[in-house]
Amino acid sequence: MIPSDVSSTGGRQPAVDDPYALSAAQIRPAPETFGGRMRQLGPGFILSAAIVGSGELIATTALGAKAGFVTFWVILVSCLMKVALQLEFGKNAVYSGLPTMQSLNRMPGWRLGRAHWTLWLWFSLQSLKVLQVGGIVGGVAIVLNMAVPLVPTGVWAVLSAVVTAWLIARNYYTWVERGSLLMIVLFTGLIVLSLVMLQSTQYAITGDQLGEGLRFNLPPETVGVALAAFGITGVGGDEIMYYSYWCIEKGYAAYTGPNDGTPEWADRARGWIRVMYLDAFCSMLVYTTVTAAFYLLGASLLHEQGQVPDGYAMVETLSRLFTVTLGPGAKAVFLVGAFFVLYSTLFTATASWARIFADAFGQFGWVRFQDPVARRRVIATLSWAFPILWCLLYLFLQVPVLMVLLGGIATSVLLIVVIWGALEFRYRQLPASLKPSRFYDICFWASVGSILFVGLYGVWQLL
């Protein structure tokens, strides 16, 4: 049984017996006040912890180091532009009660066996995505080795994988939510503190420099790295697909209840969708703040010196510069922040992969996802299997940066599935009683257009 959540009134409510099975017994009206909605947030915490990772630590900082402040606006637009697709997946979960793989499998089109072609495409891309998270394990181990050099990187990698598997295999939504929230508070506070500390040095950021970064200029020599940063920062295809699981496990769909076609159901659905919108907006504020901070660190510390380190060398370079400018204590602050940035991705990826793969295996007919007991068993097993697999890949390949980049290529292709699914949800599966405003549709198409452009650009670069 999933632990209880805090209700809109602040009290404890009975646990949701099975958030993946809608019933009238679990119906609950959505909170109508802002404070009540804030108390129902949670999926966005997990999403923010997943989003802020190697892309923000490496690609965003590298863009700042190469371009200076002039492309700061690219990062802000990237974080703001993609959230509409996230909302569409979250909204679909609220009104249908179905997680991503089940929703995709309901779409019309070519099928192989029991599964829609989008599921098979997603599944085939995971071989590269496995390498990407293996690179994250390596990144966590590298940062820990920088902090405690006496322990070899390989030992840190094994410890990180085992501890993560043990934490996630408990299979509680509330545990994942609170762990993510703790890491968000830590890495956001520490990275912003690093930026504030920078203001007392010769590298202090001025108002003119910030103004330069908000003029929407894009020098030709920065186009390639700017598009790469646009593709990897903000909410990505993976996180969009994971979001529906966390919305369901938080209880948004169960509280809405099965669609009986009544005005009361439509009112509940709109209420919980408004809660989900607030959740997504708050998560956007978090990952935009941290991503912007990393960009500004790169632009202020590295650009003038002409330093653009590759991969995880970025962590060593920035920590060394912090030591030079602010003293040894500043390096510790930055390394702790960098650790939580990377580890939060490993932590939430383990929980998210276990759920989405269990769901996919259910659609392929390999497991019984609809059975709560069987589902828990499969998720717990995968929570151990994936960290061990990622760790072994890192230990044998020992190329964390290449592993992350290969996963990035798969992410570009995965955007095809995300866009296809979002269009299907918006125009074929959405109940007429929940039709959104024209402004929402404008934002939706702007999000589709920008992500499709960057995805095609990534594939073109590969070919």
Report what the structure shows.
α15 runs antiparallel to α16. The longest helix is centred in the middle third of the chain and has 39 residues. 53% of the residues are buried. The chain has a two-stranded antiparallel ribbon with strand order 1-2. By secondary structure, the protein is an all-alpha fold. It has 19 helices and two strands. Helix content is 73%, strand content 1%. It starts with 33 loop residues before the first helix and ends with a helix. The N terminus is likely disordered. It is globular.
Low-confidence parts: 1-14
The radius of gyration over CA amounts to 22 Å
Strand fraction equals under 5%
Helix content: over 70%
Estimate the global geometry from the Cα principal axes: globular
Class derived from helix and strand content: mainly alpha
The CA-CA distance between the termini, in Å, is: 48 Å
Count every beta strand, where a strand is a DSSP E run of 2 or more residues.
Answer: 2
* Biggest β-sheet strands, sense, barrel: 2 strands, antiparallel
